[in-house]
Transposase (Crocosphaera watsonii WH 8501), 200 residues
Amino acid sequence: MTGIQALERLFPNKRIKPKQVEKIEFEYERHGTLSLIANWDVARGKVVSPSIGPTRTEQDFSEHIQRTIKIDEKAEWIFIVDQLNTHKSESLVKLVAESCGITIDLGRKGKEGILQSMDSRADFLSDESHRIRFVYIPKHTSWLNQIECWFSILVRRLLKRITVRSTEELSQKILNFIDYFNQHFAKPFVWKFKGFKDHK
């Protein structure tokens, strides 16, 4: 989740009146933006291993995955991700190979072998024989990734009405919300989608 703005409302929100929603001050001052990388544990309905920082680079994502798998270094990990290039990176291939004890020659990025292209890297990263693997959802189907459902909860319950004076304050409020959500609201999503009907 990128571009999370640290917004300081210039004036207080208007007081709530009976049968009316809270009116939020629309003038604000920006204090920077953050990116949130997080995992959704589909079985327990919890946010796992959130990473918050100013960027969402290949290195940021690889470090996030490395920190996540350290939670249980012998476990099988399946990450559901979109088609973003940082999810098919050279550093991610090297991390998975090292973590899974794969010692074959990976080739060279842009030249040969597994590292040659995004497609060859994605094939390696999605190999079902690996203890750590990635499942890539098709383009324009972000709703298939349940972390996106949770991001909408974060926006509605926290970010929509927040006022902060710095990215540090914003980061701490997000982490506090995640802790609170995991303690009091964690449960698996009930998946109701039954597929598309044929349109003629």
